[in-house]
């Protein structure tokens, strides 16, 4: 797996040079202080995300640039310029002021992909308040839980979501003073709520952006909850420095780009890279109002002339299982494709090469890191299966583990592994601008994430001799079998190379002899049928690639694997199966 390399030819002339052509030089010359100068800034060293994302472009000639392009169900589109977005967000900021909402209050959005969500996010930040995006498909209890952790004073949502998920529990949320509905335009909507549009129409389109300090809270993001209860990670305004820098280096954004991030704005990716990073670059953001549909997605890539596409492994695997999955697509505008959220199997990277005309570029980060930390870059070689190398300004390390898998700490700091190819806990030296500043109401849990100068991510990785990082597994997903540590990703990726396998989830099953044995769950691609023969074939196939110690001892077919709402495989649930 480590042997293959996809070489990138770096253009030496032309108008559109990739943003990071000399990795080593860029890393050597980089400082976050310097990266701040790429932004516009407010007087006295003040910084506000909304200013960088909207108002920086919203006035003068650049005000005409198309900021958001919404793709409706029938695939017609509506566009909003940076100038329009600037006025709309100012109106929303004025609405919050006129309602008497606390100056540091939390505003929650439960909306899905629609204009009002982007306006509410950026207008809240403009006003200096904190925004928390909630995933629109959550049921009543997850919504209540998050609104309560956040202590949200305002909720922006739809009539249907309010009636179904909030109204009955509202008496339990005395902190929730205002509910604004985006699809009820009556001047006095029924039931102790207000109309978002009526309020906005009456508000002034002029606003003086609050001169927030770098460290002022801006965003509260809940983690995916893949491993248990969600944590509320707090981020500050200077995170935009990292959003801008990573938009440039890891997503290769250029002026004039049409950019599509498929993540829902209810998650950190949909906010940081679905709105803030691209808008701070002044590019055009595609927002698809509909849910995933393979044919629709291919049409959007083609007809909206997408230049840069940021998506996730689960979606790519679904495209790979769909009809005509191997037919090369004619996407002359697509310059860069990237993926995040889960390990990207090498099979997907090379499929990209065949079908998209370029590899899919994996990158790694977490809700807590606030921005991309490790990535494959447009002008650098790609090693399929590797997450790539740390961003300029990011100092990553591998921390040794004790026999139970816990990071080893000595003399007040983690013990680092310098030898190549040894796995350990991924750590990042603290100090990058988008680092989370706390888990809300969980100070102890926050402090436990750090050791000395290092933030311990909880993910297990290895670094090869050239400094490329390879994902092994989440700390709690790694399998201990007969004295070996096995990362599920490696086994899943090997299985994915078989033409019959559409998706694989690998876990450890407790075993008296071996501690754990490797057990695989496999979803087949049509037209393959689950037979005992195919089962034996797949085990043999994995053995040949991985060796008997690592290959699954047990393999079962499944119609589907359990996924989190954000689309990640929940290995914890597979582990509980009899
Ligand atoms: P929770 O922390 O609540 O259990 P979560 O960790 O899934 O949920 P996120 O912050 O959304 O919440 O996800 C970050 C995690 O996703 C990373 O720690 C890592 O395990 C996984 N991840 C993200 N990108 C990649 C990638 N490129 N390769 C492998 N894993 C990735
Ligand atoms: Mg996590």
Describe the structure.
The strands form six sheets. The protein has a 15-stranded mixed β-sheet that branches. The chain has a five-stranded parallel β-sheet with strand order 4-3-5-6-7, with helices on both faces. Helix 16 links the parallel strand 28 and strand 29. The chain has 17 helices and 29 strands. The mean pLDDT is 94. Helix 3 (49-58) packs across helix 4 (82-98), helix 4 crosses helix 8 and helix 15 crosses helix 16 (532-546). The protein is an alpha/beta fold. Helices cover 28% and strands 24% of the residues. The site of magnesium ion has 2 residues, from loops.
Write the SSE topology.
Elements (H helix, E strand, L loop, with lengths): L22 H7 L2 H5 L12 H10 L7 E6 L5 E5 H17 L7 E5 L4 H12 L3 E5 L5 H11 L3 E4 L1 H8 L11 E4 L12 E2 H7 L14 E6 L9 E5 L2 H11 L8 E4 L6 H13 L3 E5 L5 H10 L4 E4 L1 H9 L14 E4 L6 H10 L5 E4 L9 E2 L10 E5 L5 E4 L9 E2 L2 E2 L1 E2 L5 E7 L13 H5 L2 E2 L2 E10 L5 E6 L4 E3 L2 E3 L1 H9 L4 E11 L3 E10 L7 H15 L7 E4 L13 H5 L3
Helix pairs in contact: 3-4, 3-5, 3-10, 4-5, 4-8, 9-10, 15-16
Looking at this protein, list some descriptive labels.
alpha/beta; globular; 24% strand; 15-stranded mixed sheet; 578 residues; binds adenosine-5'-triphosphate
Write a short abstract of this structure.
This protein is an alpha/beta fold. It contains 17 helices and 29 strands. The chain has a 15-stranded mixed β-sheet that branches. The protein has a five-stranded parallel β-sheet with strand order 4-3-5-6-7, with helices on both faces. A three-stranded mixed β-sheet has the order 27-28-29.
């Amino acid at each position: 797996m480590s042997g293959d390399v996809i070489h990138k030819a770096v253009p030496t002339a032309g108008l559109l040079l990739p943003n990071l052509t000399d990795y080593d030089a860029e890393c050597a010359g980089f400082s976050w202080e310097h990266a701040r100068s790429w932004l516009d800034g407010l007087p006295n060293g003040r910084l506000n995300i909304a200013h960088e994302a909207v108002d920086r472009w919203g006035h003068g000639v650049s005000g005409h640039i198309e900021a958001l392009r919404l793709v409706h169900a029938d695939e017609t589109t509506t566009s909003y310029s940076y100038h329009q977005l600037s006025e709309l967000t100012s109106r929303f900021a004025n609405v919050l002021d006129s309602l008497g909402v606390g100056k540091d209050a939390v505003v929650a959005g439960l909306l899905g992909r629609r204009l009002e969500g982007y306006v509410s996010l950026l207008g809240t930040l403009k006003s200096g308040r904190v925004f928390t995006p909630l995933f629109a498909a959550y049921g009543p209890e997850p919504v209540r839980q998050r609104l309560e952790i956040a202590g949200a004073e305002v909720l922006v949502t739809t009539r249907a979501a309010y009636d179904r998920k909030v109204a009955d529990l509202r008496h339990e949320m005395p902190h929730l003073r205002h509910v604004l509905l985006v699809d009820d335009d009556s001047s006095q909507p029924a039931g102790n709520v207000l109309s978002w549009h009526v309020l906005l129409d009456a508000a002034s389109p002029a606003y003086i952006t609050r001169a927030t300090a770098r460290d002022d809270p801006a965003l509260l993001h809940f983690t995916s909850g893949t491993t248990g209860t969600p944590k509320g990670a707090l981020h500050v305004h200077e995170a935009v420095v990292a959003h801008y820098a990573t938009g440039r280096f890891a997503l290769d954004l250029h002026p004039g780009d049409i950019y599509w991030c498929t993540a829902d704005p209810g998650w950190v990716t949909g906010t940081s890279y679905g709105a803030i990073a691209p808008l701070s670059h002044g590019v055009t953001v595609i927002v698809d109002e509909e849910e995933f549909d393979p044919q629709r997605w291919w049409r959007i890539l083609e007809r909206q002339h997408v230049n840069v596409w940021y998506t996730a492994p689960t979606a790519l695997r679904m495209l790979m299982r769909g009809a005509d999955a191997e037919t090369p697509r004619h996407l002359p505008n697509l310059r860069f494709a990237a993926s995040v959220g889960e390990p990207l199997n090498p099979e997907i990277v090379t499929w990209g090469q065949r079908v998209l005309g370029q590899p899919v570029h994996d990158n790694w980060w977490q809700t807590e890191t606030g921005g991309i930390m490790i990535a494959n870059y447009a002008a650098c070689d790609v090693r399929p299966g590797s997450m790539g190398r740390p961003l300029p300004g990011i100092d990553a390390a591998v921390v040794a583990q004790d026999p139970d898998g816990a990071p080893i700490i000595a003399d007040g700091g983690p013990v680092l592994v310098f030898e190549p190819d040894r796995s350990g806990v991924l750590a990042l030296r603290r100090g990058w601008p988008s680092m989370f500043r706390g888990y809300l109401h969980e100070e102890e849990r926050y402090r436990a994430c750090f050791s000395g100068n290092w933030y311990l991510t909880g993910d297990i990785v290895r670094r090869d001799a050239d400094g490329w990082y390879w994902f092994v597994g989440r700390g709690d997903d790694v399998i201990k079998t007969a004295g070996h540590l096995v990362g599920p990703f490696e086994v899943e990726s090997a299985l994915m190379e078989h033409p019959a396998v559409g998706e694989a989830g690998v876990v450890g099953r407790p075993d008296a002899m071996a501690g754990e044995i490797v057990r695989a769950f496999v979803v087949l691609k049509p037209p393959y049928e689950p037979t005992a023969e195919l089962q034996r074939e797949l085990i043999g196939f994995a053995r040949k690639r991985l060796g008997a110690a690592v290959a699954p001892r047990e393999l079962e077919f499944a119609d589907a694997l359990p996924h989190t709402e954000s689309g990640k495989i929940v290995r914890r649930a597979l582990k509980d199966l009899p």
